[in-house]
Amino acid sequence: MTQRRRARRERGRRLHGILLFDKPPGGSSNQVMQRVRRLYDANKAGHTGSLDPLATGMLPICFGEATKLSRFLIDANKGYETTMQLGVTTDSADSDGDVIEQRSVPADLDIAQLQEVCNQFLGEQLQIPPMVSAIKVNGQRLYNLARQGIEVERKPRKVTFRDVTVLAVEGTTARLRVSCSKGTYIRSLVSDIGESIGCGAHVHQLRRTFVAPFEGHSMWTEAQLREHSDPDSLLLPLDIGLKHLPGVTLDEANTALFAQGRAVSVQCRLPGSAPQQNQKQLDVPEMCRVYAPEGHLIGLAVPEDNGMIAPRRVLQW
């Protein structure tokens, strides 16, 4: 690495933690994340799970070593509230797109009728991603193809809707609360609901209310961060989103070996195996959190058949 590249990489503070940012409308998730990174003067940052430019709400931003763990947070369940515009379809399935068609909305449509339609989408579904999405087809992002007026076939994806509740119906708009699995497109859901009604629909407003496992945690706007006397105190610890994984604590010798990327022996067992005599019964389903003796997270590991755990991610403090 050249001195220039090293200096560029080390510019800013070495800050570690997770911020639950309340994204405003407008701008991509990456543009918003870069503004927050500069506000914190952090040398490294990333985000988990993109939000559309028009969308607002929870965008977890990872600083420093937390970026190594971000991929393990992306698979989380998510919650949304959306306002759907009935009777109008657009080429992007949201209000940023151009109008394709306008149809009349059933005059007698009420909460009960719309809820009956929404109930059809509960459970596991096959959903076709919209053309305006970041999915790659033959190496090209769909939204880039859409901008060129090119539409390609998209493979349906399995998604799960745990909750689709109608909050209000007011004229030609309706508000929904949605809880769903990873990889779900609310734009596609709203479009499908509109077609089931017979009038079409698109997303007018969209807000992400939570990303599991951060339900109940506070989100922070850019204005609040600038006004706060100690914004560093708003960062969550790196392991906050990994509590579903079992944890092991190493002694000093094995901590040093783990930091070098070497497998170490721990008192654990694989699911379904019989514990050895005097062996601590710690099930390690796929991977586990690994801690140093003083209690801070030093990485993630995967179990091996010989009773060892091998580093999957090693954190450098």
Low-confidence blocks of residues: 268-284
At the third CATH level, what is the topology name of the largest domain? Pseudouridine synthase
Structural class: alpha+beta
Q: Which overall shape is indicated by the principal axes computed on the Cα atoms? A: elongated
Q: How many individual β-strands?
A: 17
Name given to the CATH architecture of the largest domain: 2-Layer Sandwich
Count of helices? 7
> Could you tell me how far the N terminus lies from the C terminus, measured between alpha carbons in angstroms?
20 Å
Helix content: 10-25%
CATH superfamily placement of the largest domain = Pseudouridine synthase
- Provide the number of structural domains: 3
Beta-strand percent range: 25-35%
- Mean pLDDT score: 87
- Provide the CATH top-level class of the largest domain: Alpha Beta
Question: What is the makeup of the main sheet?
Answer: 8 strands, mixed
Order of helices and strands: HEHEEEEEHEEEHEEHEHEHEEEE
**Gyration radius over CA:** 23 Å
